[in-house]
Amino acid sequence: MFSHILIAVDGSTHSDEALVYARGMAENFGARLMLVHAYPQTSDLLGYEDFERLVSRRQAAGQEVIDAARHQLGDTATDIHENLLEGPEAEAILAAAETHGVDLIVMGTRGRGSIEGLLFGSVSRKVTHLAPCPVLLIR
Ligand code: ATP
Ligand code: MG
Fold it and tell me: What is the atom index within ligand 1 of the atom nearest the CA of 8?
């Protein structure tokens, strides 16, 4: 049913939990897994003298989120590939889903922002509304 699953990670406990489900789904369906993280947009840094260095720092922090997720996945026969993208987050996740023709997106209902009381974060809400495929929200 699913052959290519996108798991969106932001380093939060919610996304860690989503990762467990994504791994299980990929193993059960023999699907490929695409690990996606979007680092914050860098257009706000334009004009700064050390623009390049600031951008590299955001990218490196983003890669750390991917690395931690990869580490959490541990040993698995699943074919995993990484996709580090520039935000905005929902747009990046949706573009990756379309470009790579994934057939399932797995993500947390909430993330790092975690304002108490809200059911959905802005990223999970937007992706669920606009996704070209089924979305599995883990809570
Ligand atoms: P908000 O960001 O609106 O303050 P929040 O952080 O609680 O709220 P979301 O950002 O919507 O909630 O997070 C929901 C899920 O979306 C996360 O569990 C994760 O799966 C995914 N996600 C959030 N941010 C990113 C990101 N930068 N890159 C990839 N996936 C992300
Ligand atoms: Mg968030």
Answer: 30
